[in-house]
UniProtKB/TrEMBL annotation:
<protein>
    <recommendedName>
        <fullName>GPI mannosyltransferase 2</fullName>
    </recommendedName>
</protein>
<feature type="transmembrane region" description="Helical">
    <location>
        <begin position="112"/>
        <end position="131"/>
    </location>
</feature>
<keyword id="KW-0812">Transmembrane</keyword>
<keyword id="KW-0472">Membrane</keyword>
<feature type="transmembrane region" description="Helical">
    <location>
        <begin position="302"/>
        <end position="322"/>
    </location>
</feature>
<keyword id="KW-1133">Transmembrane helix</keyword>
<dbReference type="InterPro" id="IPR051085">
    <property type="entry name" value="MB_O-acyltransferase"/>
</dbReference>
<feature type="transmembrane region" description="Helical">
    <location>
        <begin position="251"/>
        <end position="272"/>
    </location>
</feature>
Length: 355
C-alpha cells in the first residue's frame, strides 16, 4: 500500500502576516501601557507596601535621573534582586575566572581539566560560603553517596528528602545564620544546599539504575567468594581497599558534578545591563501589583492581560539570562546544556517555554 504523501504547509500571504504582526504588537504595547499607567497612578500606595528602589534605566543615566523617565524600580521580585546583588559583588567575576581557568586547563593540562575545574569550584564555594558551608555540602554529598551504595532508588529518594527537610529545622537555621554576617550569605547557603540536594538525587538514581555496573558487580562477587575460600584474610583486606578506592572515586565524580561552578548557585547568575532588560521593572511595577489582591481586583481588563503577559515575559527574559551565560561556559567545557527557554509571545503552547 503506497505511503500517504506528507501534507505541505502553505505560506500565508504577506498582507495577512503583516496584519497578524500589527495586531500582536498593538495588543502588547497597549496592554503594557495600561500596566504602566496603573503603576504610575498607584505608585505611592505600592511604595508604602513594597518599597520601590531608585535605579538607572537608559544608557549611562544615574539612578536619580531614571525617576524622571519612568519612575521607581520594582524590586518585589526577590529572586532577581538577590542574584543581581550577588552578581555585582562577586559571582560575575568568578564566572569570568572559570572561563579563563577552563581555557588554560584545556590547553596546557587537558588530562587534569576536570580536576582543576572541581578545585576551582570548591575554592569559590569556600570563599562565598565559608568552610562551614562547604562542610555542610560535603556532608550532604557523603550521606547521599553512602545511601546510593545500597542500590535502592526508594532509599535514595527518602534520604534526599530527609536532607532537604533539614532546611526547615529552626534550630539548624539559627546555627547557620550565626556563621554569616548578613542574611544574604545565609540564603546563598540555602540555595546551594537545595540545588546540591537535587543534583545528589540525580547522581544517586543514575548510580542505582546503571545497567552496566550490575553484571560486573555480580561477576566480582562470584570471584571474591571463590577467592575467599582459599585465603580469607588477604581477600578481606583487598575487598576493603577496593571498596574504599571505588567510594573515593565516586565521591570525586559527585564533587565534580555538584561543584561545577557555572551552574553551582541555582544556575547562571548575571544582571541586566541595558534598556531592553531593565525596562519592565522600571516602567511597570508588575511584581508589586501581583502581590496585592486589592490592586488585582481593580485592574482594568487590558491592564490585567498586560500584567499577566509582562510577568511571563519577564520570567522568560530573566531565565534566558540566568541560564544563558552559564550555558555558554558549559559549551566551552565541551558539555551540552539543556535548551534555553523560548519566547512566550511566539508560542501557542507552554510546553517549550520552561525546560
Amino acid at each position: 500500500m503506497p505511503a500517504k504523501p506528507e501534507p505541505s504547509l502553505a505560506a500565508l500571504p504577506r498582507w495577512e502576516m503583516a496584519l497578524y504582526w500589527a495586531l500582536s504588537l498593538g495588543s502588547h504595547l497597549y496592554s503594557f501601557y495600561e500596566v504602566h499607567s496603573f503603576s504610575k497612578e498607584h505608585e505611592r500606595g505600592l511604595d508604602r507596601e513594597f518599597p520601590l528602589e531608585r535605579g538607572f534605566l537608559i544608557w549611562g543615566l544615574k539612578r536619580s535621573q531614571s525617576v524622571v523617565l519612568c519612575g521607581s524600580q520594582d524590586a518585589a521580585d526577590f529572586e532577581w534582586s538577590f542574584w543581581s546583588d550577588w552578581a555585582k559583588k562577586s559571582l560575575l567575576c568568578s564566572l569570568m575566572g572559570h572561563a579563563a581557568v577552563s581555557r588554560l586547563a584545556s590547553v596546557y593540562l587537558p588530562q587534569w581539566h576536570l580536576a582543576i575545574l572541581t578545585v576551582y569550584g570548591v575554592l569559590v564555594a569556600c570563599n562565598l560560603l565559608g568552610l562551614r558551608g562547604v562542610a555542610v555540602l560535603m556532608l550532604q554529598l557523603s550521606v547521599s553517596l553512602t545511601v546510593a551504595q545500597l542500590h535502592s532508588p526508594a532509599l535514595c529518594w527518602g534520604s534526599s528528602l530527609l536532607l532537604l527537610s533539614t532546611l526547615h529545622i529552626s534550630s539548624l537555621q539559627d546555627i547557620q545564620r550565626d556563621w554569616y554576617e548578613s542574611e544574604d550569605q545565609y540564603y546563598l547557603l540555602l540555595f546551594s544546599v537545595a540545588v546540591c540536594g537535587l543534583r545528589c538525587i540525580s547522581f544517586s538514581l543514575e548510580f542505582c539504575w546503571s545497567a552496566s555496573g550490575q553484571p560486573q558487580q555480580q561477576q566480582q562477587q562470584q570471584q571474591q567468594q571463590q577467592q575467599s575460600q582459599c585465603c580469607p584474610l588477604q581477600v578481606g583486606g583487598a575487598q576493603q581497599t577496593r571498596r574504599l578506592s571505588s567510594f573515593l572515586s565516586q565521591l570525586y565524580r559527585l564533587c565534580a558534578y555538584c561543584f561545577y561552578h557555572p551552574v553551582f548557585f541555582n544556575g547562571p547568575i548575571i544582571i541586566y545591563r541595558d534598556f531592553s532588560q531593565q525596562a519592565l521593572i522600571h516602567c511597570m511595577h508588575m511584581h508589586s501589583i501581583q502581590s496585592n489582591e486589592t490592586y488585582l481586583e481593580i485592574l482594568p481588563p487590558w491592564a490585567l492581560g498586560g500584567l499577566a503577559l509582562a510577568l511571563v515575559q519577564f520570567f522568560y527574559v530573566k531565565y534566558l539570562v540566568l541560564f544563558g551565560v552559564p550555558s555558554l561556559l558549559v559549551r566551552m567545557d565541551g558539555l551540552e546544556p539543556p535548551a534555553l527557554p523560548r519566547c512566550v509571545s511566539i508560542m501557542y503552547s507552554f510546553t517549550g517555554m520552561w525546560r
